[in-house]
Each structure stands twice: as C-alpha cells, then as structure tokens.
Amino acid sequence: MGIKEDVEGGKKRGVTEPLLGENNNQLVNETKDHHHHHHNHPWMVYFTTFIAVCGSFEFGTCTGYSSPTQEAIRKDLNLSLAEYSLFGSILTFGAMIGAITSGPIADLVGRKGAMRVSSAFCVAGWLVIYFSKGPVPLDIGRLATGYGMGVFSFVVPIFVAEISPKELRGALTTLNQFMIVLGASVSFVIGTVLSWRALSLIGLIPAAVLLLGLFFIPESPRWLAKRGRSEDFVAALQILRGKDYDISQEAEEIQDYITSLEKLAKPKVLDLFQKRYLRSLTIAIGLMICQQLGGINGIVFYASSIFDLAGFPSTAGSIYFAISQIVITAVGATLIDKAGRKPLLLASGSGLVAGCVFIAVAFYLKVHGVGVEAVPALAVTGILVYIGSFSIGMGAVPWVVMSEIFPVNIKGQAGSIATLVNWFGAWLCSYTFNFLMNWNSYGTFILYAAFNVVAILFIVLVVPETKGKSLEQLQAAINA
Fold first, then answer.
1. What is the CA radius of gyration of the chain?
2. Which of 146, 149, 164, 315 is paired with 100 by a 20 to 30 Å CA distance?
3. How far apart are the C-alpha atoms of 409 and 226, rounded to whole Å?
C-alpha cells in the first residue's frame, strides 16, 4: 500500500496541474516529454502482462490435456470412446458458459476479480480430475476447467489491451496467444512422460502463479475510471507507466472518453445491435467466425491421426507441429505493431488456403492411389504451412482486435458475445471434423480452403487497421 499512497499523494498534483492551465507551451513540452519517455518502457507493464498471461498459459494446459492422456484415462477408468469424447469436448461447453458470464463478471468485480474467479474454477477442476474414479467426476472437473478457460479467453486480452501503452499494445496482447500455444505444447510434451493424474496437478501451477501475482499488480485504469474511482485510476496508470512518466495527457484522454460514454444510456444486450455499435460487433464476430470455421480445431485436435492417415510418424509430426506453432506465434508477436494487424491477417489467410490445398491434394492422391509416395510429404507440408500461417495472424490477431474496438461501456457484453461465438465455432469445428472426414477426406480440406478464401474477403472489406492508435481514438472512429 505504501507505494500506492505515495503515488496517489505524490503524483496527483502533477496530473491535475496541466489540466488546469493548458497553454500551447505546455502541450509542446508534454509532446516532447512523451517522445522522451517512449524509450523508457516501465517494467511494471511487462510484469503486469506476465502475471495476466499466466491465465493464457492455464488456458493452454486445459486444451492440451486431453490429447496425450486419452489412452491412459480410457484404460484406467474403463471409458468407452463415446465417454472419452464427451470428456474431451465438454471443455468447450464449459468455455461457452464462461464466455457468456465473463463480460458481466469483469464489469462487476474488475478485470483482476474475473481472473481470480477463473483461476478458482481451474484449480477446483484440476483437483476433481486428479481424484476422479469414474466418468462423472472427470466430466465435472473438465467442465470447471472449461469455464475458467472461457473467462480467461475474454478477460486476459481485454486487461492487457487496457493497461498497455499504444505502441506496445499489439505485441503485449499477442503474448496471450503465445502463452496459450506454449501451455498446450508443454502439456502435449510432458503428457507423454507423466501419468494423467500427475499432468492434472501441473495444471495448478500457472493458476497459483496468477493468484499470487494478482496481489502485486494494479487493476485496469480504464475500468477504475469507468467505475468513477478517479484517484485509484490515476494511481494505477502512474504505477503502470513508471513514477517519472507524465501521464496527464493519457489520463485526460481516457477520462474525457469515459465521461462522454457516461452520458449515453447503459446499453442492454439488444442495444449492441444498434447502428452505432454494429460495426465493431460485426468486425469482432466476423473475425471469430473466420478464425474457427477455417478448420483450426479439427486440425489441432486430430493432428496426430492426420499424420497417421497420411503415413507419417505421428510422434515426430506432433513435435514439429508444437515447435513451429511456438516459434511462429513469437515471430507474429514481434511483427504486429510494425506490420500492422491487417497485413498479418491477410498473409495468414493466404497461408491457410495454401495449407488446406496441400492437405486436400495429399488425401486426393491417397484415395485415388496416384503418386502415393508423395502423400506423407504433402500432408506434413500442408499441416505445417497451415499451423504456421494460423500462428502468425489468425490465431492471435482476432483477440487483439476484439480487445481494441469495443468502447468500455459495451466491452463486457459485446466481448462476451464475440467470445461465445468463438467457442461455439470451436465446438462446431471439432465436433463435425470426424464426420466430414468419413464423408470425404480431401473434400473436407477443400471446404476449409473455401472458407478461408471467404475470410480473406471479409478482412479486406470490413476489418480496419488498428495499430498505433489509442483505444479511445480507435473506438471513436469505428463507432462514430
């Protein structure tokens, strides 16, 4: 508390003074000051982001859990394939419930409060899985971790976007996706050596780090400002920017924007479909549909069986898959604030089409018994091109854009709807994949390729570039 009082007591005067007597010289000095401080990125933003993205790592461990443990859990608990499939897929139902409730929770108890709630659900879920003796407790535990995951998928990118300076916002928000991928890959790899019960205990670690870390980081300044807690808002912003940084300009911009939003009536769910919010809602929901229906969950959940079908050793394939996903997501994070959101999405969409075409050709050759020796190489190339392309743009950027474009007064409800659409798409894609493959293996990937072409058109025509603008500038432009 000492620091906080110090910041509130010591810095508030500095914040209110420029707001009183704003002459041109002051503005010039302030602008110089801002440029001067740009290179002095305070470590507190990085530390706060690191704590928040432990939630993303937790999310990854939940998704990565069912793949390496399938054989062992079925053998130990005598589960039929249908019972295990329910265990695997009930995660997305938990996530849908989490998505629906995440916005209201984050608006009511704050971004940190929402992260506490989701951590608690994950911890409880993992413990129930660890002690399970049959299918029912197993499913209840999985549903609980799914719920926590659904809340994390909304609150982490929102929180990170709200605390970040605009020139770092893309890279820091992309860390969300990087940590999801890392968490899933770590589960995938250590799941091959640990028992399924031991692996469920590993899932407790990121949740514990997050719960502990929340005591040391500030709440989202924008949420505090929206709740009318102006002293806490100034203190939190000052802690995040560093104690020597002049926050007056940024604080004033946030405060003015929130004051103008306060004059609007509090939106009900149906109000989100009014003309003024329709564009941001269309962009967010459209991107979530593009992300999921292009086939990602079918390919991720069943990568090892695709490798097997194509005649490529699935263990080696899965390791290549995990490594390329981690490396390319990291590359995407470094590019997003330089190249921009839209170019990464377009490059990503084009690669997804190419990857689907490679896999479709491989299965076509296999089915028709032509050039069979080329099948494994084509299939593996297709999968790696696909996952690499997804990792560089379509994986992370929709979440980054979703966290940027909603005004703070509708962020909870609108973000919940976009997150729900995402999870419904995830369920639909993973549920239909096996049926589609039985219908026509190469036809499945031609269908995904066609969908990714539609996604490219949507990005070209509808999605704006959001890099380098403050959240307030962006939202005012989109929702004008």
1. 23
2. 164
3. 8
Phi/psi at 203 (nearest 5 deg)?
Answer: -60, -20
Cα→Cα distances 335→340, 360, 368, 396, Å = 7, 30, 42, 12
Q: Round to whole Å and give the CA distance between 247 and 238.
A: 7
Q: For residue range 254-308, what is the model confidence (pLDDT) as tens digits? A: 888 888 877 766 667 777 777 888 899 999 999 999 999 999 987 876 677 778 7
Neighbours of 25 (CB within 10 A): 8
Is residue 246 pLDDT above 90, yes or no?
no
Q: Under DSSP, is residue 356 helix (H, G, I), strand (E, B) or coil?
A: helix
Nearest by Cα to 317 from 399, 242, 376, 251: 376
Q: What is the spatial distance between Cα 349 and Cα 355, in angstroms, rounded to a whole number? A: 10
Dihedral (CA of 145, 151, 157, 161) sign = negative
Amino acid at 30: E
Structure tokens at 247: 């926050």
Mean pLDDT, residues 240-247 = 86
Per-residue pLDDT reduced to its tens digit, 190-220: 888 899 999 999 999 999 999 999 999 999 9
Task: Report which of 125, 150, 149, 158 is spatially closest to residue 139, judged by C-alpha positions.
Answer: 125
Put residue 132 in one of left, alpha, beta given phi > 0 → left and psi -120 to 50 → alpha: beta
CA distance 55 to 203: 11
* Residue in the structure block whose two tokens are 């898959």: 321
Say how far apart CA 210 and CA 236 lie, in whole Å: 19
Q: Which two tokens stand for residue 255?
A: 């405060």
- Residue 93, Cβ neighbours under 10 Å: how many? 19
- Residue 264: how many CB atoms within 10 A of its CB? 12
> 363 near 441, Cβ under 8 Å?
yes
The answer for 96, left when phi > 0, alpha when psi is -120 to 50, beta otherwise, is alpha
Structure-token pair, residue 170: 């893309």
Phi, psi of 403 (to 5 degrees): -75, -15
Is 286:462 a contact under the CB 8 Å cutoff? yes
For the purposes of burial, counting CB atoms within 10 Å of the CB of 311, is it exposed (0-12), middle (13-18) or buried (19 or more)? middle
Nearest Cα neighbor of 65 from 130, 155, 162, 131 is: 130
CA atoms within 13 A on the CB side of 130: 14
DSSP notation for 33-52: HHHHHHT---HHHHHHHHHH
User: Of 340, 339, 341, nearest to 398 (Cα)?
Assistant: 341
Cα dihedral angle (438, 439, 442, 447), rounded to 10 degrees? Answer: -120
